[in-house]
Here is the input.
Amino acid sequence: MDIMYDAIIVGAGPAGSIAAYVASKLGFKVLIIDRFRFPRFKPCGGGLTQKSILLLRSLGLDLNGVVRDECRRVVVINSAGSFILTDNDPIITVVSRDEFDNYLLSNALELGTDYIVDRVVSVRTNGGDHVNVIGMDNTYIGRYVIAADGANSIVAKYLGNDIRRNTAMAFMTIAHGNYFDNTCVIDMTRIKWGGYSWIFPRGGGGEYDVGIGSIHWDNYRAQLIRYVRDAGLREGEIRGHPIPIKSRERITSKRIVLVGDAGGFADPITGGRAFSTPCIVAPWLHWH
Here is the structure.
């Protein structure tokens, strides 16, 4: 017999896993589907703001086991010069996305969320009281779908969105060498218009998350390599990824809601991602 879930969440990144965590905590029967088995590598700066940390703590999520570094000093470089921001509390908390995402998913699973590894290829609402989520291996049935399947969201496309519009591009690498410890660097001068670069320490051992991104699409691989070497570091594998920086034209239907990158909720200035917002997602399950 097919299982009817209250909510099927497509994508187990931070937006999807937090949505699953909140929904499960409220007593809903939840399935989360992701095409990868966790932990998995995710290209990202891995910097969490104070606001993000407070949100996670308010949900009962303690990150002590996955924090790589805490930057109480941030160097910001722009055309006017270099500026140092300091605070007694960490301004940027650095995590490794494979560890961070796996931690969030694990917390959702501990509350009873089901987890299946499958690649979602389509959804079908059929005008009824449920949604069919169609994967490569099976079809899953839920009363509602929370789409957290990233910048190239299949579900966002199903809702009629042009997922290629309003998307920035970033490249990153895990670099090695000796640079500033416990200090995050944000450099606005490496790309002339609409972009910046970063260097975030990964907790000693000579590892640094280094990236470069812009609202203008281009192959920034060569620029990233120059940036890494100008900092006296050695680049590792380089990966690129798109970042939606404007809300999708349609983020909800009667039984579907988009969150995270699927909804286009990245900050247009920093490219920072928004978590699934429990204050929106949880009531939405009740309202419909």
Observations:
- Helices lie at 14-25, 50-58, 97-110, 154-158, 221-230, 260-263, 278-287.
